[in-house]
Specification:
- Helices cover 33% and strands 22% of the residues.
- It is an alpha+beta fold and 443 residues long.
- The strands form ten sheets. A four-stranded antiparallel sheet has the order 4-13-10-11, covered by helices on one side.
C-alpha cells in the first residue's frame, strides 16, 4: 500500500500522524445540519411509511429486513420537521446499539428515536466519507469515552460537540469513499459466500443424520416397509416402536413460573439447550423445598435427555453430561431411556431428523396444538429402532462425520472473522491517511 509523501502530528493521540493538507475538525462544526429524533416515536401501524430504527442500521448500511415497523405518513411529518431525510445523509445510532452508521438510500422513510441524522457541509465534508470515518475503529474507540449508561451505552446530545473527525480535501474524501465502497463490497461478497458455505455444511450434517437414523449406515442393506407412510422403508432387522415403550420417564417441567430465590437449586429452561449441548452459562434458582417436590419421581440425572418444547429451536436435544442437581421449566421435556432398548444419543439425534419434524407437525395439527412439543403426543411417536449395537455404531458414525463437518465450519468461521477484521482495519487505515487513495486506485 502507498503512503502519502509527508505527514504531520494531528495533535490527537488516538489519530496519530495525518497527511499534510488534512485537518482535524470538530464534527458538529462542519455539519450543515443535525437532526436528533429522540423524544417522540410516532404510533406504529401495520402498513405505511417505513420506520428506520436503530435495529435497521448495521455494518454501514440500512438493512430493512432486521426490523419492519411502519408509521402513518402524516403523523411522521411532525417528527421529520426536525430534518427531512435526503439521499446520502448519515444516520448514527445513539444507543442500543451505539455508533452504528449508514447513508440514507431512500427518502420515503421515517426515523425513530435513538437515531441522529447528520448532513455534511457542501464542498467541505462528504457524507459518504463521513460514514466511513464514523465506522472506523479509532473513532469508535473515542466515541465510547463519551458514552454513558450501565446496561446499554449511549451518548447524550450535549456530547456530540466533543467528537472530532479527520478530513482530507474534498476530492480526496470522494476518492476514499468510492474506494471503500468498492473494497468493502468485495469483502462483503466474500463473507456472504463463506456464510453460504456454512449453510451447505449444516445441510450436509442434517442429511447425514437423517440417513443414519432412519436408514442406517450400510448402503447395501435390504429394506422393508416400515408401516408408517411418512417414514417409508427401514432396514431389515429394525423395528418401529412407540417412544413410551422405551422411556420410563418422559415428562415436562414445572408449568407455572415459580418464585425464584437468590440461592437454592438451579432452574433450567429451553435457553439452556443449544446445538446438542447443555449450556450452564446462566440460570435462576428455586428453593430446595420446591425442587424436592418437583423431582420426587423425575429427577434429571446424567445420561438423561432434555428436549426443548417451544420456540424457534423446538426439538433441540442434549444429553445431561454433568453431575448437576437441577429442576426444569415447562419449556423442557425430560426423558430417560431404557438402556437395553435405546441408546440415549441415538434418540438425541432422532430429534434432529426431518422425520421427527414431520411427526411433531402432524401430531400438533391433529391435536389442535399451538406449536409446542406435546408430551402425550411424544409418547406415541413411532420411531425406527435398530438393534442396540447397531445404534451404537450409528452414533459413532454420526459423531465422526459431524466432527469432520464441524471442523470445516470452524475454519470457515475463522476466515469470516479475518475478513471482517481486514474490513475494519482497511477502513481505519484509509480514513486516517495511513494508506494513500487516489483517482487511479478507484477505477
Amino acid at each position: 500500500m502507498v503512503r502519502y509523501e509527508r505527514y504531520k502530528d494531528s495533535g490527537v493521540e488516538w489519530v496519530g500522524e495525518i497527511p499534510e493538507g488534512w485537518e482535524v475538525l470538530p464534527l458538529t462544526k462542519y455539519l450543515e445540519s443535525i437532526a436528533d429524533y429522540r423524544g417522540r416515536t410516532p404510533k406504529k401501524i401495520e402498513s405505511g411509511m417505513f420506520l428506520v430504527t436503530a435495529k435497521n442500521i448495521k455494518n454501514g448500511r440500512i438493512d430493512y429486513s432486521l426490523s419492519e415497523e411502519y408509521v402513518d405518513a402524516e403523523d411522521a411529518q411532525a417528527l421529520l420537521s426536525r430534518g427531512v431525510p435526503k439521499l446520502g445523509d448519515v444516520l448514527f445510532t445513539t444507543e442500543a446499539p451505539l455508533g452504528e452508521v449508514a447513508n440514507i438510500d431512500r427518502e420515503d422513510i421515517a426515523l425513530a428515536q435513538r437515531v441522529i441524522k447528520f448532513r455534511g457541509k457542501k464542498e467541505i465534508l462528504d457524507n459518504y466519507f463521513l460514514k466511513y470515518f464514523l465506522m472506523s475503529d479509532p473513532f469508535q474507540q473515542d466515541l465510547i469515552t463519551f458514552a454513558t449508561g450501565s446496561t446499554a451505552l449511549g451518548i447524550k446530545a450535549s456530547k456530540l460537540s466533543k467528537l472530532i473527525i479527520v478530513a482530507p480535501p474534498t476530492n480526496d474524501q470522494i476518492n476514499i469513499a468510492n474506494y471503500l465502497d468498492r473494497k468493502t463490497a468485495e469483502i462483503d461478497e466474500l463473507i456472504a459466500q463463506k456464510e453460504r458455505l456454512i449453510e451447505l455444511y449444516e445441510e450436509e450434517k442434517t442429511a447425514i443424520i437423517n440417513q443414519a437414523v432412519t436408514k442406517g449406515i450400510d448402503p447395501d442393506v435390504k429394506l422393508k416397509d416400515s408401516g408408517v407412510d411418512w417414514l417409508g422403508e427401514i432396514p431389515e432387522g429394525w423395528e418401529v416402536k412407540k417412544l413410551n415403550w422405551m422411556t420410563p420417564i418422559l415428562t415436562c417441567g414445572l408449568a407455572s413460573t415459580p418464585s425464584y430465590s437468590l440461592e437454592g437449586i438451579p432452574f433450567l429452561s429451553a435457553q439452556n439447550v443449544k446445538d446438542n449441548q447443555l449450556i450452564l452459562d446462566t440460570y435462576k434458582y428455586i428453593p430446595f423445598e420446591l425442587h424436592n417436590k418437583l423431582t420426587k419421581y423425575r429427577k434429571p440425572e446424567q445420561g438423561d435427555l432434555l428436549v426443548t418444547r417451544v420456540g424457534a429451536g423446538i426439538g433441540d436435544a442434549c444429553i445431561v453430561d454433568v453431575d448437576f442437581e437441577f429442576s426444569i421449566y415447562v419449556s423442557l421435556t425430560h426423558i430417560r431411556v431404557n438402556k437395553n432398548d435405546l441408546h440415549n444419543k441415538f434418540l438425541m439425534h432422532f430429534f434432529s431428523t426431518d422425520y421427527f419434524r414431520l411427526l411433531n407437525k402432524v401430531e400438533t395439527y391433529q391435536g389442535g396444538g399451538v406449536g409446542n412439543l406435546n408430551v402425550e403426543n411424544m409418547k406415541n411417536y413411532r420411531i425406527p429402532i435398530p438393534p442396540i449395537n447397531e445404534q451404537k455404531s450409528i452414533v459413532e458414525h454420526i459423531e465422526t462425520e459431524t466432527a469432520r463437518i464441524d471442523a470445516k465450519v470452524a475454519k470457515t468461521k475463522r476466515i469470516i472473522e479475518l475478513q471482517k477484521e481486514y474490513r475494519t482495519a482497511l477502513i481505519s487505515e484509509v480514513v486516517t491517511g495511513k494508506i494513500k487513495i487516489t483517482e487511479e486506485t478507484t477505477p
